């Protein structure tokens, strides 16, 4: 049977500890060519309201050891409101005012569809766990303070991951909307049993922080190179959050994966309309990304990690991979079966008695 | 609500006449950049039984006018048994002895998932309709005889399409297994009200045929250049069915779409194991595909079609595109809603209240 799970199920089933472990194993398998990815591809078209754009995105990954292949897709209607920063807005237009992002899991043993669930919680955890694995090798061993820029959904995963890999005691959080940062801090003080305080400026968040973490949805730099202090570890969830200054100011830089030559590819079907502001015009196009190790390379060779307490280190989660969904999806699925979670649907709805 | 449809539903809803029309409109929209594709990508990995290989394939397309995006995926366990011809075998290992190929339809207006159904019947019809549109411009106006090589699932779609675009009266069918070709002929004589006869050799099928159609699952040439007679139209569903001789012997060649630089990409995660026989070693790698028009180009400029009754013409359905699934999927969905077809599932199972 095919299992339909909810974000709540995924949140309950996926712990950060297990996610860190699963993701590390999957990255190691990838280096041995026992796991792989289809890079993310994006297809843009007009929505029916021509002021809006429709984007379909897909990426996939498989991990032979777990016998799982995963497809992650997003089906979004977007606008680019012209605010202070160039920010893409995804409109919740699906019935009930909702967004559409899904993960489908398949068995490599039989081909069958095993599960379908929304991508939100697993997305947060896979990004958090990747930055957490990087911090394990790049942050100071005794790192105990985090300065967090952002209080959204990605910020949650980042903070959970740092607390899992370092003895974090104090967190300062800045985000532009006071109510958001206050709410975030209230929830996380309870959940993580550490001090999580809202602050009124980015500088106040990052001053003296051992880990300076950006987890925002802006498309413009939020980290200032003037904030780089000896021993800091800078962690970002996308290239757009930092400037080339920050990259050049750090002693050691690790990227998530090689993004060049892999995608994202944008296949645009917009007639005569263009995309208001392309996201792909950035310093990274001319930057020698390949001269820095990737996270999987760092994991198998920790000598590429922090070498002294004074080093300034940087992890750029430059692009995601489908394998992350296969690795964490395998974990979700195994536990969902054990605990009998989710709705179940008949297999024959999702299979057929003929093939091409 | 999300509609789950069956192959039987799709067969009932999609007529060849309407499919030809929808596909033609979609190809025209594509040339105007009002429709688009994510090219097919393939991800290979080991199955749990290491003598088998798991392959995940995906392609996508969107058609703004209909407000539909479609994803088509295949999740197959395969072997390459070493027979007389190099043939890939897909193993029906999903529960009930079934295969897994699915189409998911999304709304470009809201992003929501609209429908899920198996890919078998729509696959047959999209390939048939593409070759049918080509035959409309490349076969003689008075073409009345078809020599068909193959009696499987793809052969059905080909024959239906030729009968829709030309006054076909007589069909001869060859395929290696006598029982298969006899059964095929019995079913199609009834369904199409034309004479459909099994024959014992490929030559007997194609001799004097106005349309020489290959619709096989072999990976080796089945069309002999000695069979090319004045006025013939040769129609193939894949490049592997013909040799370079046949291409060079024809006066006019049209391909489905540009396949170079678009994929398929093979992302292989097979550890130290290789793929026994790569399918992509063929004459077409050195062949100037770009010097021939594509089917969409032929549709908007019929002067690229047959110019005289004596010409020998060739259509190579070199690779499929996701847009075909969006075009025919839009039709399936509209009619399924009108007629209340399929199982319905709640929207909130396939959407979420957060996004990244």
Protein described:
Two copies of one chain form a homodimer. Chain A folds into two domains: 2-122 and 322-350, ornithine cyclodeaminase, domain 1 (2-Layer Sandwich); 123-263 and 277-316, Rossmann fold, CATH 3.40.50. Chain A is 29% helix and 26% strand. Chain A is built from nine helices and 16 strands. Chain A has helices spanning 7-13, 16-31, 120-138, 153-165, 178-192, 202-206, 244-249, 295-300, 322-339; strands at 2-4, 35-46, 53-63, 68-79, 89-91, 101-107, 113-118, 145-149, 170-174, 195-198, 211-214, 233-236, 252-255, 265-269, 313-316, 343-345. In chain A, the strands form two sheets. In chain A, strands 1, 2, 3, 4, 5, 6, 7, 14 and 16 form a nine-stranded mixed beta sheet that branches. A seven-stranded parallel beta sheet of chain A has the order 10-9-8-11-12-15-13. In chain A, β8, α4 and β9 form a beta-alpha-beta unit.
Features of the shown structure:
homodimer, about 350 residues, alpha/beta, ornithine cyclodeaminase, domain 1, Rossmann fold, 2 domains, nine-stranded mixed β-sheet, seven-stranded parallel β-sheet, 9 helices, 16 strands, about 30% helix, globular
CATH superfamily label of the largest domain in chain A: NAD(P)-binding Rossmann-like Domain
Q: What's the helix-strand series of chain A? A: EHHEEEEEEHEHEHEHEEHEEHEHE
- Major sheet characteristics of chain A: 9 strands, mixed
The CATH topology of the largest domain in chain A corresponds to Rossmann fold
Structural class of the secondary structure composition of chain A? alpha/beta
pLDDT average of chain A, as an integer?
93
Q: What general form of chain A does the structure show?
A: globular
Seen as an oligomer or otherwise, the chain set is: homodimer
Number of domains of chain A: 2
N-to-C span of chain A: 24 Å
Poorly predicted tracts of residues of chain A: none
Largest interface: A-B, 86 and 84 residues
Write down the CATH class of the largest domain in chain A: Alpha Beta
User: Helical residue percent of chain A?
Assistant: 25-40%
CATH architecture of the largest domain in chain A: 3-Layer(aba) Sandwich
Beta-strand proportion of chain A: 25-35%
C-alpha Rg of chain A (nearest Å): 20 Å
Number of helices of chain A: 9
> How many strand elements of chain A?
16
């Amino acid at each position: 049977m095919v299992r339909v799970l909810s974000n709540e199920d995924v949140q309950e089933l996926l712990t950060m500890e297990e996610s860190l472990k699963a993701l590390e194993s999957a990255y190691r398998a990838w280096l041995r060519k026992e796991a792989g990815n289809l890079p993310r591809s994006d297809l843009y078209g007009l929505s029916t309201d021509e002021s809006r754009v429709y984007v379909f995105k897909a990426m996939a990954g498989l991990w032979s050891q777990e016998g799982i292949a995963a497809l992650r897709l997003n089906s979004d209607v977007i606008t680019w409101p012209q605010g202070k920063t160039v920010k893409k807005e995804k409109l919740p237009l699906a019935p009930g005012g909702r967004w559409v992002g899904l993960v489908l899991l398949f068995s490599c043993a039989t081909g069958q569809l095993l599960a379908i669930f929304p991508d939100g919680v697993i997305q947060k955890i896979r990004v958090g766990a990747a930055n957490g694995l990087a911090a394990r090798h790049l942050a100071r061993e005794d790192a105990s303070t985090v300065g967090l820029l952002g209080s959204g959904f990605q910020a949650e995963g980042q903070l959970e991951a740092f607390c899992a890999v370092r003895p974090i005691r104090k967190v300062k959080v800045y985000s532009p909307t006071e109510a958001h940062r206050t709410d975030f801090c209230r929830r996380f003080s309870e959940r993580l049993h550490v001090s999580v305080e809202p602050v009124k400026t980015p500088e106040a968040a990052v001053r003296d922080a051992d880990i300076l973490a950006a987890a925002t949805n802006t498309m413009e730099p939020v980290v200032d190179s003037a904030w780089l202090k000896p021993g800091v570890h800078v962690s970002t969830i996308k290239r757009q959050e930092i400037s080339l200054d920050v990259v050049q100011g750090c002693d050691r830089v690790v990227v998530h994966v090689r993004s060049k030559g892999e995608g994202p590819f944008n296949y645009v079907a917009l007639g005569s309309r263009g995309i208001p502001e392309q996201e792909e015009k950035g310093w990274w196009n001319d930057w020698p990304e390949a001269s820095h190790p990737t996270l999987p390379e760092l994991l198998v060779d920790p000598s590429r990690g922090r070498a002294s307490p004074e080093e300034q280190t940087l992890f750029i989660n430059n692009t995601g991979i489908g394998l992350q969904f296969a690795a964490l999806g395998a974990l979700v699925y195994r536990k969902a079966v054990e605990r009998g979670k989710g709705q179940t649907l008949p297999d024959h709805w999702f299979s057929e008695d003929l093939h091409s």
